[in-house]
Structure formats: structure tokens, C-alpha cells
UniProtKB/TrEMBL annotation:
GO molecular function ontology, one term from the record: L-amino acid transmembrane transporter activity
Keywords: Membrane, Transmembrane, Transmembrane helix
Species of the source: Stentor coeruleus
Location, primary (coarse class): membrane
Compartments, as annotated in UniProt: Membrane
Name listed for the protein in its UniProt record: Amino acid transporter transmembrane domain-containing protein
Residue stretches in coiled coil: none
GO annotations of cellular component type: membrane
Keyword Membrane on entry: yes
Domain Amino acid transporter transmembrane: 65-453
InterPro entries: AA_transpt_TM
Membrane topology: Multi-pass membrane protein
Alphabetized Pfam families for the sequence: Aa_trans (PF01490)
Entry's transmembrane regions: 64-85, 91-116, 137-157, 177-196, 208-226, 246-268, 289-309, 332-353, 374-392, 398-420, 432-455
Length: 459
């Protein structure tokens, strides 16, 4: 993910910024205000695609904000969506994705309203304005848990994804495909040095790269389905289990879905940069961006599931990240997808360490930390995350815990609490009733999912 540099004196958070100077307007030639013809646009796109994208998707414009929320939402969690459909059933999984998008959009809108009412730019400052210093600290702690947990998830993914990519190339050497070796080497040589730097602005576009990698993943998975299951595509749809109605399937899948739709820490800064800012325009870029996310998630979840659900029995044997499924050696589209996602996750991991580090330093030290304190906090956070990543068997464990602890708090509980406090009244008022209802339901889902995770772990 990239990062916004906000004007308010707050702790930096990891967000993407696609910025150019000019306002959102009719597309024109670089040196003229005359609108381009379709032919001129095509020539300009081919001659300078990066400049075209910058001008077309500007920060503050609806398209630019939509692209930013898209890049902020889509991440490594997309790899686990076929597993979600597998444990839920085809149609139950689709319903969960749609409900996840609707509730995520609703709570993002609550954040926009709370930010507009308080005039604050971050989770922490809104909490401080509405509830006081304790809520600010509570929000900071949850941001630390969320970022630290995601760092662990990314290291788990990298230690497994790189060896799997080599195996698809046909490499069988045990040392060369050792997940422990790759985890230690990636963390020590790349992640740790970058995490020590106070500014890593060169990586600010990694969220956008990750978004493009995930879009390519969707294309590759569709290709894999039709190439590997040609002649049986209809039967795959007809014979796929429709639902898996059990506490395990519902609450476990809900944790993954919650994690996958986490974009809330980025919503307020994106909204603050919106040109001609209004809640109506804010709701517009949020709805468009999250609908595109939903479409991408449905593609990856459905086609990844349909490709392999017959090959894994029972349902819990389905791989928690789809690139570890039984694709053929030398499958070029899947190899490219593995490499692309591995690179973007590798570049994005230090960006998750930075806000976690800054929030930790803020809680531990009242004054500006010394170099020794700074070095100690970064070292402990990075290598403790590596230690946990090496003993955790797959990314699903981390995503499930995050999806039942910190993500429900960040995505649903705090936005509802903020709205209820910012717009007080009787709970019977329609908007407050809905906010209270979402607050209660998502709290129960988070607690139930966490209990189910530990029951499964020790059963």
C-alpha cells in the first residue's frame, strides 16, 4: 500500500496517493485546452501511458478517488477467496461477498459523515474528538494489531509463494524451495532495511501495482478454469455444492470476507482530498470503487473454487491461498501471477511496518524517541513477526484472526460508534437503529468467529 501525507498532526498511516497537479476536467492535449479527439487520445496513451493514467485518474477527482479506494481495498486477502467459497458453498459464498461489500460501504459512509461532522482526518483524531484520549489510544492499539498482523500474513505468504513459484518452474531442490530459508532471507535482506528508513516514498505506488497484479490474477484464474476444465465447465457449475450451513462455514468465511473488504483507514484521507468535496461525491466514489472490488472478488472466488473443488476432500483441505492449488508445472499465466503478487507484497510489507512502528513509538514514548529506541522497536516488530510467520502453517490462520479481532473493530464497530456519538438521538431513529444493529451483529460475528477459530485450532 502507498501512504498519504496528511496536513493534520497525526501519526502516518499506510495509504496510496495517486497525485497530479491539475484538476479533474475534460481530457485535453498537454499544451492546449482543446479537447482531444479519440485518435489523439489513443496516440497519447500509446506514447505516454503513465502520463495518460495520471491525467485521467487524478487525485481528488472521482475517477482518481475510485481507483485509490480500489487499490486500498484489494490486497493479499484475495488469494483466500476461493477457499471462502469452498467452505461456504457457491451461492452462500456469493451472498457473503455481496453482504460484505454492502456493510463495508455502509460503514465507510458513516466514517465520511463522522469526519465531516468533526473535521478530523484520522481514526485516532475522530475518536479523540468524540470520546476522549482513551478512545484515541484504543484506536491506535487496533491499528497496531491490524498492521502487525498483516505484516505476519504477508511474510507467511512470501515464504510460501516464492518456493511455490519455483516449483511451478520445475525447481525441485529442497534447499532452493525451503519456505524457512526464503522467509528469513526476504525479511533480513529486504523488509528489515526498508523498515528502518523513516521515509520510503519510492514505494508509495505499490498498492496500485498490487491492485493491477490482483486484476491479472483474476484473468489468470479464469484462463486456468477454462483451460484445465474444458469440456466440463457446465458440470462444474451444476455439481458445485450450493451452501454449507454450519457455524464453522459462516463465521470462518465471515472473517476472511471482513479482512478482504478492509479499506476504512484510507477512506478519510481520500475523502479529504476530494475536489468539490461533499458527502454525495464521497458516497459516489466509495460505491463505485467497492462495486468493482466485489466484481473482482467474485471472479477470483468463484472460478478458483470451481477449478479445484472436486480435487480436495474434505472441504477443509482446499488450499487457503489459491496459487498453491494443483496448477500444472510450467503454467505461464499462474507463474506470472505468482511473481507479480510476490513482488507487490514484498514491496508493500515495509509500508505496513511504518505505521505500526510510529503508533508503537507514540504509545511508549511521550517525547521524540532516541535512535536506540527507534532501532529497538523496529527490530522487535520485524523479527518477532518473522518468527511467528515461520511457525504459522498458512496465511489463512492470520487472516482469520485479523478478520475476527482487529478488522471488525476498525471496519464496523468504531465507525458505528463514531456515528452514534457524532449524531446523537434515540436508538429508535431509523439511521441510529441501523447503526446500532450493525454494531451488535458485527460484534457478535467477530466474537463467534474468534471462538470458532480456537475451537478448530485445538480440536
Amino acid at each position: 500500500m502507498g501512504d498519504f501525507m496528511m496536513m493534520e498532526e497525526e501519526h502516518p498511516t499506510h495509504k496510496i496517493n495517486i497525485s497530479v497537479a491539475s484538476p479533474d476536467s475534460t481530457f485535453t492535449t498537454p499544451n492546449s485546452k482543446t479537447p482531444m479527439s479519440p485518435t489523439q487520445r489513443l496516440r497519447y496513451l500509446l506514447s505516454s501511458p503513465s502520463r495518460y493514467i495520471q491525467r485521467k485518474f487524478q487525485a481528488g477527482g472521482l475517477k482518481g478517488s475510485m481507483l485509490t479506494i480500489l487499490a486500498s481495498t484489494v490486497g493479499a486477502g484475495i488469494l483466500s477467496l476461493p477457499y471462502v467459497v469452498n467452505i461456504s458453498g457457491l451461492y452462500q459464498g456469493i451472498v457473503l461477498f455481496i453482504l460484505g461489500m454492502i456493510v463495508s460501504l455502509y460503514t465507510c459512509q458513516l466514517l465520511v459523515l463522522a469526519a465531516e461532522k468533526t473535521g478530523k482526518l484520522t481514526y485516532e483524531s475522530i475518536g479523540n474528538e468524540l470520546f476522549g484520549h482513551k478512545m484515541r489510544t484504543f484506536a491506535e492499539v487496533n491499528m497496531i494489531i491490524n498492521n502487525y498482523g498483516t505484516v505476519i500474513a504477508y511474510l507467511v505468504l512470501l515464504k510460501d509463494l516464492v518456493p511455490n513459484c519455483l516449483k511451478l518452474f520445475g525447481v525441485d531442490n529442497a534447499f532452493a524451495t525451503s519456505s524457512y530459508m526464503w522467509g528469513c532471507m526476504i525479511c533480513t535482506i529486504i523488509v528489515y532495511p526498508l523498515s528502518l528508513k523513516q521515509e520510503i516514498s519510492a514505494l508509495r505506488y505499490t498498492s496500485l501495482l498490487s491492485c493491477f497484479a490482483c486484476i491479472y490474477l483474476g484473468i489468470a484464474i479464469i484462463y486456468g478454469f477454462f483451460s484445465m476444465r474444458s469440456g466440463e465447465t457446465s458440470s462444474r457449475f451444476d455439481e458445485a455444492p450450493a451452501t454449507e450451513l454450519s457455524a464453522y462455514s459462516i463465521f470462518t468465511a465471515a472473517g476472511y470476507v471482513v479482512f478482504s473488504f478492509t479499506c476504512h483507514p484510507n477512506v478519510i484521507p481520500i475523502y479529504q482530498e476530494l475536489q468539490r468535496r461533499s458527502t454525495k461525491r464521497g458516497f459516489k466514489f466509495l460505491s463505485r470503487g467497492l462495486i468493482i472490488v466485489l466484481f473482482l472478488y467474485l471472479i477470483v472466488g468463484i472460478f478458483g473454487f470451481l477449478t479445484f473443488y472436486k480435487e480436495y476432500h474434505p472441504i477443509t483441505d482446499f488450499p487457503t491461498q489459491i496459487l498453491q492449488a494443483k496448477y500444472h508445472k510450467g503454467d505461464v499465466p499462474i507463474i506470472i501471477a505468482s511473481m507479480a503478487i510476490a513482488i507487490t507484497v514484498l514491496c508493500g510489507t515495509p509500508l505496513l511496518v511504518h505505521p505500526c512502528r510510529d503508533a508503537t513509538l507514540s504509545i511508549l514514548y511521550q517525547r521524540r524517541p532516541t535512535k536506540k529506541q527507534y532501532f529497538l522497536v523496529v527490530t522487535i516488530e520485524v523479527f518477532s513477526a518473522l518468527g511467528l510467520a515461520l511457525v504459522i502453517p498458512n496465511i489463512g490462520y492470520v487472516l482469520n484472526v485479523l478478520g475476527t479481532i482487529s478488522n471488525p473493530i476498525i471496519c464496523f464497530i468504531l465507525p458505528c460508534m463514531y456515528y452514534i456519538k457524532a449524531f446523537p438521538g434515540k436508538y429508535t431513529r431509523k439511521d441510529l437503529f441501523i447503526a446500532y444493529l450493525v454494531l451488535v451483529i458485527m460484534t457478535l460475528i467477530g466474537i463467534s468467529g474468534f471462538i470458532m477459530f480456537w475451537i478448530e485450532l485445538f480440536s
